[in-house]
Specification:
62% of the residues lie in helices and 0% in strands. With 76 residues, it is mostly helical.
Length: 76
């Protein structure tokens, strides 16, 4: 079955596709992918630090969360 839904590309997506036309090798494609991943990794780190500051999350809090065992009870 073919999905008949179309997606409108935003300006950033069009720009990236335009830049992709200059990629000639698999190595160049991998380099661009690495750059994009680094970009999003930095954004994610920044958002995480912001969340920690706004919610007063400390290393102790993270340790407590990692040891929590909250599970949905199952009815038999």
């Amino acid at each position: 079955m073919v999905n008949s839904t179309t997606t409108q590309l935003n300006p950033a997506q069009i720009n990236v596709l335009s830049l992709m036309s200059y990629i000639d090798t698999e190595q160049e494609q991998q380099e661009l992918q690495d750059i994009l991943l680094q970009f999003y990794r930095k954004k994610t780190d920044s958002l995480l630090l912001q969340f920690q500051r706004e919610h007063n999350v400390t290393q102790q809090t993270l340790d407590e969360w990692s040891n929590m065992h909250e599970r949905t009870p199952y009815n038999k």
